[in-house]
């Protein structure tokens, strides 16, 4: 073939053999292989179609060539490819996004997320702190707040935008406060009434 038409013309479609899923079906069902052989005229095949490699889907002209092929690297490579199961129609549709999304994902994604949450605590929103259930000191792993562990409110930040101090509630001889910075609780402290 002339190379005038570009590199695409150099790809030999006449050497194209059966796909892996077709060969898998040939190996699984003898009838499937017989149907394929019936489409070929034996007079036109090498050695009248006697030497056929099922894995590679090729005919050979002599027993010597057939045995040499079975010892070769291309045949062994093809056998190794056939050990994997072929893709199903369901997997092919899922790859292009034609599947039903039922909500939560399954598998390794959740496990990785759970490990990440254990290793790095997540900031809690102020509503959980305001409910009185959580009186721990929350902080983001990338943010180092110097006022995080103080027992005194950081009054220098009270008037600035995005910073506020909330009174969580009062109990006997004690007032609970929370310092918030940009929507997230930074510390919770208690002051005793006298």
From TrEMBL:
<protein>
    <recommendedName>
        <fullName>C2H2-type domain-containing protein</fullName>
    </recommendedName>
</protein>
<dbReference type="InterPro" id="IPR003604">
    <property type="entry name" value="Matrin/U1-like-C_Znf_C2H2"/>
</dbReference>
<dbReference type="GO" id="GO:0043021">
    <property type="term" value="F:ribonucleoprotein complex binding"/>
</dbReference>
<dbReference type="Pfam" id="PF12171">
    <property type="entry name" value="zf-C2H2_jaz"/>
</dbReference>
<keyword id="KW-0690">Ribosome biogenesis</keyword>
<dbReference type="GO" id="GO:0005634">
    <property type="term" value="C:nucleus"/>
</dbReference>
<feature type="compositionally biased region" description="Basic and acidic residues">
    <location>
        <begin position="133"/>
        <end position="150"/>
    </location>
</feature>
<dbReference type="InterPro" id="IPR000690">
    <property type="entry name" value="Matrin/U1-C_Znf_C2H2"/>
</dbReference>
<dbReference type="InterPro" id="IPR013087">
    <property type="entry name" value="Znf_C2H2_type"/>
</dbReference>
<dbReference type="InterPro" id="IPR022755">
    <property type="entry name" value="Znf_C2H2_jaz"/>
</dbReference>
<keyword id="KW-0479">Metal-binding</keyword>
<dbReference type="GO" id="GO:0042254">
    <property type="term" value="P:ribosome biogenesis"/>
</dbReference>
<feature type="region of interest" description="Disordered">
    <location>
        <begin position="112"/>
        <end position="161"/>
    </location>
</feature>
<comment type="similarity">
    <text>Belongs to the ZNF593/BUD20 C2H2-type zinc-finger protein family.</text>
</comment>
<keyword id="KW-0963">Cytoplasm</keyword>
<keyword id="KW-0539">Nucleus</keyword>
<keyword id="KW-0862">Zinc</keyword>
<feature type="region of interest" description="Disordered">
    <location>
        <begin position="71"/>
        <end position="90"/>
    </location>
</feature>
<dbReference type="InterPro" id="IPR036236">
    <property type="entry name" value="Znf_C2H2_sf"/>
</dbReference>
<dbReference type="InterPro" id="IPR051879">
    <property type="entry name" value="C2H2-ZF_Maturation_Protein"/>
</dbReference>
<feature type="compositionally biased region" description="Basic and acidic residues">
    <location>
        <begin position="81"/>
        <end position="90"/>
    </location>
</feature>
<feature type="domain" description="Matrin-type">
    <location>
        <begin position="51"/>
        <end position="81"/>
    </location>
</feature>
<feature type="domain" description="C2H2-type">
    <location>
        <begin position="51"/>
        <end position="80"/>
    </location>
</feature>
<keyword id="KW-0863">Zinc-finger</keyword>
<dbReference type="GO" id="GO:0003676">
    <property type="term" value="F:nucleic acid binding"/>
</dbReference>
<dbReference type="GO" id="GO:0008270">
    <property type="term" value="F:zinc ion binding"/>
</dbReference>
<feature type="compositionally biased region" description="Basic residues">
    <location>
        <begin position="71"/>
        <end position="80"/>
    </location>
</feature>
<dbReference type="GO" id="GO:0005737">
    <property type="term" value="C:cytoplasm"/>
</dbReference>
């Amino acid at each position: 073939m002339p190379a005038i038409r570009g590199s695409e013309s150099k790809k030999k479609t006449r050497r194209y053999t059966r796909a892996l899923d077709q060969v898998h079906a040939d190996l699984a069902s003898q009838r499937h292989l017989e149907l394929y052989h019936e489409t070929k005229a034996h007079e036109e095949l090498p050695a009248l179609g006697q030497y056929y490699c099922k894995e590679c889907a090729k005919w050979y002209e002599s027993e010597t060539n057939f045995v040499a092929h079975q010892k070769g690297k291309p045949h062994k490579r093809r056998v190794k490819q056939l050990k994997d199961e072929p893709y199903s129609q369901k997997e092919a549709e899922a790859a292009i996004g034609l599947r039903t999304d039922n909500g939560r994902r399954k598998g390794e994604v959740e496990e990785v997320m759970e490990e990440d949450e254990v290793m790095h605590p997540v900031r809690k929103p102020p509503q959980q702190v305001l409910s009185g259930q959580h009186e721990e000191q929350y902080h983001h792993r990338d943010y180092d707040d110097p006022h995080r562990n103080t027992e005194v409110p950081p009054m220098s930040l009270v008037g600035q935008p995005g910073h506020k101090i909330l009174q969580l509630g009062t109990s006997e001889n004690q007032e609970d406060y929370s310092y918030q910075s940009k929507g997230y609780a930074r510390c919770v402290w208690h002051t005793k009434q006298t």
